[in-house]
Design goal:
Elements: E1 4-15, E2 20-26, H1 28-33, E3 39-42, E4 54-57, E5 60-61, E6 66-72, H2 76-82, E7 89-96, E8 108-113, H3 118-129, E9 139-143, H4 146-159, E10 163-167, E11 174-175, E12 191-195, H5 198-211, E13 214-218, E14 234-236, E15 242-244, H6 245-248, E16 251-253
Parallel strand pairs: 8-9, 8-12, 9-10, 10-11, 12-13
Antiparallel strand pairs: 1-2, 1-7, 2-6, 3-4, 3-7, 5-6, 13-16, 14-15
The structure holds flavin-adenine dinucleotide and FE2/S2 (inorganic) cluster.
FE2/S2 (inorganic) cluster (FES) binds at residues 223-226, 228-233, 244, 246.
Length: 261
């Protein structure tokens, strides 16, 4: 699969909450080749500190060569990216990894928790374009508070998806875990796509397994290179051994993952 390195101009910077940001960058070759569930490696800043690029899911792609990443400030790299302004340039490599493999049949259910919502928007866009978005059950979105969810939920709605939300503090939607919302939908779903914290994905994989519903999960691992060279991004495989998340993933079928690690 083709990968590109582009000096991308930031065309838009949005601050969704105190620590959640969205950067839209113009990188036409990466945007044209990107598939939902793939990611980019972004150099944060112009100096050698931090040395390593940071991985981010491709959140949105537009027909005019732009893509967006949605991220929470965690440490030095994301702090630098959050301070980057429109007109500045970012060094981006992508699209990387193996993304979602949408089942041609539906109904499809997308479940995102926290920043795990990021790749699901691109998947939702893709399902619509390929004619599989209509008449799906609600997209399930969870976060700590409503501030993180409001704009994103609205954007899924604008695509035409029904949306159900859950927040830890009860400030929006179901007060509690987003996974609680899945039970009522499983009987009508053929394929579940999930990205979020590991315990959330483990729960969704378990529920889907019991119900006989196919499930694809997008895993996170620490990534030094993102290119298959450092072998640092391992995750235990159900067949024994390890997956290399950056090359074989980040998306896997739930049954390929050893959840009991
Ligand atoms: C394939 C992939 C896609 C991702 N997509 C997104 C996204 O769309 N939005 C988003 O906000 N984040 C995403 N992440 C996580 C993001 O890459 C990290 O939050 C970021 O690299 C942190 O960089 P930093 O320099 O700010 O923090 P660091 O200074 O590098 O780290 C700060 C702390 O966070 C921990 N940490 C760093 N990276 C990870 C990780 N990958 N998993 C668990 N703990 C980590 C470190 O151990 C450290 O304790 C993704 C990660 C992967 C592997
Ligand atoms: S991050 Fe280096 S091999 Fe996966």
């Amino acid at each position: 699969m083709a990968e590109f390195q582009e000096k991308s101009t930031i065309v838009r910077r949005e601050q969704l909450t105190g620590d959640v940001f969205r950067l839209t960058v113009h990188c036409p070759r990466i945007a044209a080749a990107a598939q939902p569930g793939q990611f980019v490696m972004v150099r944060a800043g112009e100096t050698l500190d931090p040395l390593l690029r940071r991985p981010f899911s491709i959140h949105k792609v537009t027909g005019d060569g732009k893509l967006a990443v949605l991220f929470k400030v965690i440490g030095k790299g994301t702090r630098l990216l959050a301070a980057a302004m429109p007109g500045e340039r970012l060094d981006v490599i992508g699209p990387l990894g193996s993304g979602f493999a949408p089942d041609p049949g539906g109904p499809h259910c997308l479940i995102g928790g926290g920043m795990g919502i990021a790749p699901l928007y691109f998947l939702a866009q893709h399902l619509l374009i390929s004619g599989h978005g209509a008449a799906n059950p609600p997209v399930l979105l969870g976060a700590q508070t409503q501030a993180e969810l409001l704009l994103l939920a609205q954007e899924f709605s604008e695509l035409g998806y029904p949306v159900l939300t859950a927040t830890d503090d009860g400030s929006l939607g179901h007060p509690g875990l987003v996974t609680d919302l899945l039970d009522a939908l499983l009987a009508e779903v053929r394929q579940v796509y999930v990205c979020g914290p590991l315990p959330m994905m483990r729960t969704v994989a378990g529920k889907c397994g019991q119900a006989g519903v196919a499930c694809q999960v997008s895993l996170e691992a620490h990534m030094a290179c993102g290119l298959g060279a450092c072998l640092g991004c391992t995750f235990p495989a159900s067949s024994g051994g390890f997956h290399h998340v950056c090359k074989e993933g980040p998306v896997f079928r739930a049954e390929e993952v050893l959840w009991s690690r």
